[in-house]
């Protein structure tokens, strides 16, 4: 039995089923409300959902049973005096110490919980970096959406921000440096490519088996860093497009990554009416299309940045992604074959495997 | 005491009560007192900077008002979400 947490524009759908066929919708939580993200903390068995009411604002909710009662966390909320208010909560990520979790929000900020996600405090170090007044949002806002802990070391962390690039701390969040050498913002004039910090990261993951390696889906490019985010190499050659939003990895293979290319930033749907996941097993040197079981005709899907989740590793890696069409597709064999797990849900914003 | 009238989902967060009597000399005082009495409402009407949320409307005796409006005893404060802010 596999359990999926599918965040949508109209609530959280809890799906359960056996890989290979349609899953059952066993519960819908937060009806009528945007669920930007939902995840499961394997360490504690606790579920988290980022829930945003267009009227009453965003909040983190948590539960021990996703089909039962959810509790509202205290925060994330900006301290008085910052003048800021949380607009969206893009991601909740377990950290590398007991009770430690992170939340990334818009406007770009990192919140930290040390009590298992019940209370949250602003990371002042990142909030107060001197360049912040110059930070520019992407189309989706000024969003801190990717959080990459370093295995077994809570002091080391990388975050991805749209559109302010990659920020790294090695002292538990007291100080931060940005690392962007090699990222090319082709959406800007050429004379700004080497100096601009308007870097639109779409998604970023660390390879836990080789923690100095990160993969990134950029706004027009796929990149790999082998030095913990200091420099980046374009590995998009071989992909039909460098544009897309989500990215996944096989945690057991540091040379692996999966992306779902879209046509271009001016046409954010799957290319030529076919849905294709691309996989690399050689760190981006080559890519292979994985589309067996995915629709290949008249399928113009948009897969958003948090809508690609995984569980397991190696040949038993499970991959699931959802589209704004309300469909969810899955693979139980590391992408070799795919099946439709759900359809006719609300537009999907996030997918995670519990 | 002012009477704060609530509808779902705020009513649910106030233990199912559609009317709550709270003390306060201004709208912000009353809303803060409401939060103190019903902590699950924290963050729903006021944002973290103490401002009424952009897509929430507060009426006093039927008139749209803002945070610093003064209140008298027995004023009726209605909290409603606006017709904007939702998704299609």
Beta-strand proportion of chain B: 25-35%
What is the CATH topology classification name of chain A? Answer: Methylamine Dehydrogenase, Chain H
Topology order of chain B in helix (H) and strand (E) letters: EHEHEEE
Summed over residues and divided by their number, the pLDDT of chain B gives a mean of 94
**How many structural domains in the coordinates of chain B?**
1
Q: Give the name of the CATH superfamily of chain B.
A: Beta-grasp domain
- Strand line-up in the sheet with most strands of chain A: 3-2-1-30
Structural class of chain A: mainly beta
Oligomer class: heterodimer
By DSSP (H or I, 4+ residues per run), the number of helices of chain A equals 1
- Name given to the CATH architecture of chain A: 7 Propeller
The rounded distance between the terminal residues' Cα atoms of chain A is 10 Å
**Total number of strands of chain B:** 5
How does the major sheet of chain B shape up? 5 strands, mixed
Text of the CATH class of chain A: Mainly Beta
Q: Given the structure, what is the number of helices of chain B?
A: 2
Largest interface: A-B, 21 and 21 residues
Q: How far do the termini of chain B sit from each other?
A: 38 Å
> Could you tell me the radius of gyration of chain A in angstroms?
19 Å
By CATH, the superfamily of chain A comes out as YVTN repeat-like/Quinoprotein amine dehydrogenase
- CATH level-two architecture of chain B: Roll
Summary of the model, kept short:
With 354 residues, chain A is an all-beta fold. Chain A has one helix and 30 strands.
Describe this structure in words.
The complex is a heterodimer of chains A (354) and B (88). Chain A has 354 residues and is mainly β. Chain A has one helix at 124-127; strands spanning 2-8, 11-17, 24-29, 34-41, 46-53, 57-63, 71-72, 88-94, 101-106, 109-113, 121-122, 143-150, 153-162, 165-169, 177-178, 201-206, 214-218, 221-225, 233-234, 247-248, 257-259, 262-264, 267-270, 277-280, 288-290, 308-311, 318-322, 328-331, 339-342, 348-353. In chain A, strand 28 (328-331) and strand 29 form a beta hairpin. The longest helix of chain A has 4 residues, at 124-127. Chain A is globular and about 50 Å long. Chain B has a single domain (2-81), classed as Beta-grasp domain (Ubiquitin-like (UB roll)). In chain B, strand 3 (56-60) and strand 4 form a beta hairpin. Classes of the chains: A mainly beta (354), B alpha+beta (88). Chain A binds chain B through residues 9-10, 32, 34, 53-57, 59, 72, 74, 77-80, 82-86, and chain B through 9-10, 40, 42-45, 47-51, 53, 55-56, 81-82, 84-87.
